[in-house]
Amino acid sequence: MSIPLLTYPPSSQNQRVAGYEVRGEEQPRVYSQEQITNSKEIDELIWSAYYQIFHQQQMLASNRQTFLESQLRSGQITVKEFIQGLATSDSFRRLNYDSNNNYRFVELCIQRILGRKVYDEREKLSWSIVLATKGLQGFINTLLDSEEYINNFGDYTVPYQRRRILPQQMQGELPFARMARYGTDYRDKLPFPDGFARQPFNFRTFRQSSDWSVISWLLMSSLGVTSIFAWLAVSGILPNFGGY
After folding, report:
1. What is the dihedral of CA 201, 205, 211, 216, to 10 degrees?
2. Which DSSP state fits 8?
3. Could you tell me the pTM of the whole model?
4. Could you tell me if 180 and 207 lie in one domain?
5. What is the pLDDT of residues 218-237, one digit of tens each?
6. For the residues of 101-113, what is the DSSP string, one character each?
7. Domain that holds residue 226
8. Same domain, 230 and 167
9. What is the pLDDT of residues 60-112, one digit of tens each?
């Protein structure tokens, strides 16, 4: 018996409010399979799908799914099925699922597939349960078959970040493509050079533990002797001679 989706209250976000603004450069361009008339437009649609699912930092030649591309070009699959193939590919699993906990992965998928940020922590928990019980394939299929996805994108439209810019605001929400693909828990597990501690920079500690003979030589070589002695005097490292 499958576990039903945990209920969560939708919060008031931009994409839940009808928009009547005139589209401009800041508004996302909508790519639809139904509007394609030539090969150049299908190339642009495929690129937009990769950009939406993998984002710019993951768009590598090794991540291309050429078989899916050929099926989409020939009309054998829809855009929705193409998105499904990208989100369940080995490359997407390795770059996003394997490098995140379930909560962070759910947040990424809701951004990239549903085109919005999560409502709250309860929604993260709800979809994390689906991911844990149905696996990656079942989780992606559930998102794509959801009423929200069907109503906003259907079978032929590439997902996009919905209503990021509002005309009443000087600055909109940060584009999802600029957000880090993994959280701090995974970042802290990454290898770090020996002898370097993960702590904020402290100038007093730096001044006490540094070899100033070497630093002074480097600074004098690049900036000039007079400027360096003035900077050292102002910083309190050297006595104030000659009014410096």
Report:
1. 70
2. -
3. 0.64
4. no
5. 666 665 555 656 666 666 66
6. -HHHHHHHHIIII
7. 203-234
8. no
9. 778 889 999 999 999 999 999 999 999 999 999 998 898 888 999 999 999 99
